[in-house]
UniProtKB/TrEMBL annotation:
Family named by the database record: Belongs to the helicase family. RecQ subfamily.
Entry annotated with the keyword Heme: no
Enzyme class: isomerase
InterPro entries with a match to the protein in the record: DEAD/DEAH_box_helicase_dom (IPR011545), DNA_helicase_ATP-dep_RecQ (IPR004589), DNA_helicase_ATP-dep_RecQ_bac (IPR006293), Helicase_ATP-bd (IPR014001), Helicase_C-like (IPR001650), Helicase_HTH (IPR029491), HRDC-like_sf (IPR010997), HRDC_dom (IPR002121)
Catalytic activity: Couples ATP hydrolysis with the unwinding of duplex DNA by translocating in the 3'-5' direction
Protein name: DNA helicase RecQ
Domain Helicase ATP-binding: residue ranges: 26-193
GO biological process assignments: DNA recombination; DNA repair; DNA replication; SOS response
One Pfam family per UniProt: RQC
Enzyme Commission code: 5.6.2.4
A GO CC term assigned to this protein in UniProt: bacterial nucleoid
Residue intervals of the Helicase C-terminal domain: 217-367
Length: 704
């Protein structure tokens, strides 16, 4: 049978459908064309080059900056039965020769190299290989505008020029507009197409807590961790001292925790990281270097003990939570002392002005009073039309007002200054300042000079930051932090759109967030005892094989097993994330555990969604399925909603009228987007059934 991307996706990786953009990127690569892939952490970047690598009759070279990252990805590929290996400074000369021999003999499909190793061998044995594709991971490392510049990446352009007929793919999770153009130029990509996936990680809740005293912060973190018992998490700290203090505090409280920082010897760092990867240690307290080299899918939470240096780094770090798509939590603590200390660091480094500008943007995010997901996505050029409902601001919204007139004054000032000035100059002009620079620029002659003198400097700064956070203006770091008006901003300036701003308030501790909004009905059918037993089996196998537990099966796959309870090979293969290799290697052991639960004398409280799906695919409608299975029709609706969320091919739109969905949407919004069926049922005068409400909510949330 011919290997197609679709068959490889299912047979090797165990997935039924591609994520957005993956199919298009793969098709372009198979056509021999260059691509630039911008996808969030956990968004499925690696699949974009791994599947073409399996289609090509040759070898794919993957450039990666970290040894641990190479090892992690190679192990994941090998777990799926794929011939993959790495070539870096961690392996012995004998192992190097073995890799070279197998690569020349066509026994390796994907070979991972560090950029410095690739450059050193590019004119030797590498020239003898039948290279069909080159993928450059963490491509932001090539750009001076990126947050993690690595000089060795700049030498990759010569390698690209030596393979003019081979498609190149650059991949990164973090690159603003300035960095994107620089990456394409530095790598010498030819007529590449930019693919930008949505950066909206809906399964991550976002919370920020400011100006919390140290002792209270430690107490809050200890309480948070207690809630997350037996779940993996990462706490990021600014200093080595902080990592040890926090780890000691949590260890004294009885938690499985270790610290990780550059002051430790390499062997000790490797031991700590391995223990975390293998689930022997649940919590790591680390400086920001930790986590770049692993793809651990079952990290359930990330805490920042201090303010990160920039939004790119922050986004990448919180992205280490919930890579399997299950609900996960993130929390950021910040104090002004963090900002001052990082500012001092920036003064001593390269690109000082740009670093300080990005640090200021990070502080603006932390102090924001509007939907945090909107702010993050706006920074990466993506604009949400609605608040997310899954951050601390959405959970406890501040008081707002119609800020259209204030916004128009600021936008007019930016436009009249030809989009060349930054925040401070704009405020000085709006407030009618006699500052010499204002007069020197001729800005005192503008119509906007002095139109905002009734608003204080501090409040104006707050409002302008809100405009940036809402995506009306962009801060161009590569142009001296000049303010530019976005397409949305021009609409507001022309009176085509109105906006709301929030009143400046004295910072105070925020109320607790609501539970993660993603926890709707996804887990209601999970047999928790079976899920625990499957996790224990996975851990035992990982110990025997000295292999990361999450690479055997993800938490998401285990939850699928605990819901559908597969007991045959075909049923087991229907679980998301189960391919042929894993089924053959582990299937019988896991099904043996499942059979014990399925044959238990206890009555089955919840029939499996899998049986419902089989009947649905046979053409039965919900009422017929309910009758055949002796179920309530609301239970069938619940199963179909879950199957739709999992991308199983259920046409939920045909099962509930659009008018009903619209009614539910209105009620849902009026109830502050609270995901609970009964309030909506009562709000709609009990005229819409619970099953219709459930399906409507699934459609609303899935398609936003």
């Amino acid at each position: 049978m011919e290997k197609t991307p679709q068959t490889l996706l299912k047979d090797v990786f165990g997935y039924d459908e591609f994520r957005p953009l993956q199919q298009e990127i793969i098709d372009r690569t198979l056509a021999g064309k260059d691509s630039f892939v911008l996808m969030p952490t956990g968004g499925g970047k690696s699949m974009c080059f791994q599947i073409p690598a399996l289609c090509f009759n040759g070898i794919t070279i993957v450039v990666s900056p970290l040894i641990s990252l190479m090892k992690d990805q190679v192990q994941a590929l090998q777990a799926n039965g794929i011939q993959a290996d790495f070539f870096n400074s961690s392996i012995s000369p004998q192992a190097e020769n073995d890799v070279i021999t197998r690569a020349k003999n066509g026994q390796i499909k994907l070979l991972y190299l560090s950029p410095e190793k690739l450059i050193s061998v590019s004119n030797t044995w590498l020239r003898d290989l039948n290279i069909k594709l080159v993928a450059i991971d963490e491509a932001h490392c090539v750009s001076m505008w990126g947050h993690d510049f690595r000089p060795e990446y700049t030498q990759l352009k010569a390698f690209r020029n030596s393979l003019p007929e081979v498609p190149f793919m650059a991949l990164t999770a973090t690159a603003d507009k300035s960095a994107r153009a620089d990456i394409e130029m530095q790598l010498g990509l030819k007529d590449s197409k930019l693919f930008i996936s949505s950066f909206d990680r809906k399964n991550l809740s976002i919370e920020v807590r400011g100006q919390v005293p140290k002792n209270k912060k430690l107490q809050e973190i200890a309480q948070f961790v207690k809630r997350k018992k037996n779940e993996s998490g990462i706490i990021y700290c600014l200093s080595r001292k902080n990592t040890e203090e926090v780890a000691d505090y949590l260890k004294a409280d009885g938690h499985s925790v270790a610290f990780y920082h550059a002051g430790m010897n390499p062997e000790e760092r490797e031991r700590v990281q391995t223990a975390f990867i293998h689930d022997d240690t649940k919590i790591i307290v680390a400086t920001i270097a930790f986590g770049m080299g692993i793809d651990k899918s079952n990290v359930r939470w990330v805490i920042h003990y201090n303010l990160p240096k920039n939004l790119e780094g922050y986004y990448q770090e919180i992205g280490r939570a919930g890579r399997d798509g299950l609900p996960s939590e993130t929390r950021l603590y910040y104090n002004m002392s963090d900002f001052v200390l990082y500012s001092q660091f920036a003064d001593d480094g390269a690109n000082s002005a740009m670093q300080k500008d990005k640090l200021s943007r990070m502080l603006q995010f932390a102090e924001a009073k509007s939907c945090r997901r909107k702010i993050l996505l706006s920074y990466f050029g993506e604009h949400l039309t609605k608040d997310c409902g899954n951050c601390d601001v959405c959970a406890n919204p501040p008081k707002d007002f119609d800020g259209t007139l204030l916004a128009q004054k600021a936008l007019s000032g930016i436009a009249r200054m030809k989009e060349k000035e930054g925040i401070t100059m704009l405020i000085n002009v709006l407030r009618g300042s006699n500052n010499a620079e204002v007069h020197a620029g001729g800005y005192s002659q503008l119509k906007t000079y002095g139109v905002g003198k009734d608003v204080s400097f501090i409040d104006w700064r707050d409002y302008i930051i809100q405009l940036a956070n809402q995506g009306l203006i962009e801060i161009m770091y590569s142009e001296g932090s000049a303010l530019k008006i976005s397409p949305i901003g021009w609409k507001v300036l022309k009176g085509e759109q109105r906006i709301k701003l929030t009143l400046p308030v004295v910072p105070e501790e925020k109320n607790k967030m609501r539970p993660n909004a993603m926890k709707m009905a996804d887990e209601e059918d999970v047999n928790t005892d079976l899920f625990t037993a499957l996790k224990q089996l996975r851990y035992s196998i990982s110990q025997e094989e000295n292999f990361p537990a999450y690479l055997i099966f993800s938490d998401k796959s285990l939850k699928g097993m605990a819901v559908d309870m597969p007991v045959t090979e075909n049923q087991f293969l229907a679980i998301s994330g189960v391919g042929m290799n894993k089924m053959e290697k582990y299937g019988e052991e896991f099904m043996r555990v499942i059979r014990k639960f399925s044959s238990s004398p206890k009555p089955k409280k919840t029939p499996t969604t899998l049986e419902t799906f089989v009947l649905y695919k046979e053409g039965l409608n919900p009422a017929e399925i309910a009758a055949k299975r002796d179920l309530q029709i609301t239970t069938v609706y619940s199963h179909l909603s879950q199957l739709y969320t999992e991308g199983k091919g259920v046409e939920l739109e045909k099962l509930v009228e659009k008018a009903v969905v619209d009614k539910v949407r209105v009620a849902f919004n009026e109830l502050d987007r609270e995901i609970a069926l009964k309030p909506i049922f009562e709000k709609l005068n009990e005229e819409v059934s619970y099953g219709e409400i459930r399906m409507s909510l699934t459609l609303i949330l899935k398609n936003e």
